[in-house]
Design brief:
Length: 93
Amino acid sequence: MNVVSAIVLLAIVWFMTLFVLLPVGLRTQGDEGETLKGTHAGSPASSFSMRRKLKQVTLIALPVWALICAVIIWGGITVADIDIFDRLGAQRN
């Protein structure tokens, strides 16, 4: 795996983790009972910290990315393993 592939993989894993973790632990204005004029009840309350959420995402995404990179470099899972329709004609072990 070259450096560009690793960076692209990190970006994909990081953004997937962001979209999974974004609603986790979110307190909405409707939950707090104080909906500001002009906002939806599902809007985040004032206690929402995007900086803290980005730190959480990074701390979870980095080990996941490292594990995926290790599997790719080790060769434990190859394209032949996921070719369930036998389109590549590769021999499986």
